[in-house]
Amino acid sequence: MNRRTFLRATGTSSLVSVGLAGCTTLGSSDGVASDETLVEMTPDDAFEPAELTVSSGETVVWKTVGYLGVDALTADHTVTAYEDDIPDDAAYFASGDFSSEQAARDGYTSGDGGGVDGGDTYEYTFDVPGRYEYFCIPHEAHMTGVIVVEDN
Ligand SMILES: [Cu+2]
Questions:
Q1: How many angstroms is it from 35 CA to the middle of ligand 1?
Q2: Alpha-carbon distances of 13 from 2, 9, 19, 25, rounded to whole Å
Q3: pTM
Q4: Ligand 1 centroid vs 2 CA: distance in angstroms?
């Protein structure tokens, strides 16, 4: 990279930084942008909030948080859609980017991913209006959530 290219690259990145700083001001202290909504996955094995309404095109960010703000002090969780409980014309979604509920269950169980560790996030943008039910594979008995997407 020659000097001119370097300067141009630097200039671009500082513009990006300014833009991001602006978003941070509008968003929450969690670093979630203003067009994103945060769902925490808590040490009590719950989605918080468990039910959330967003507009189509909005991005939901799930974050695994630990006890006392220490992200190491928690189990990992998954965000896994119930294939039969999402709108018919919506794409399947799951942390680990599995293409079906069965693939997500098998993948997580066999160690092929899908877990969201403490401090980490998974995000998904909901384009198709409707009701989406989802769960956490290791805590399915009590850790479930609902996203309702309203037409924008
Ligand atoms: Cu969980």
A1: 25
A2: 17, 6, 10, 19
A3: 0.78
A4: 49
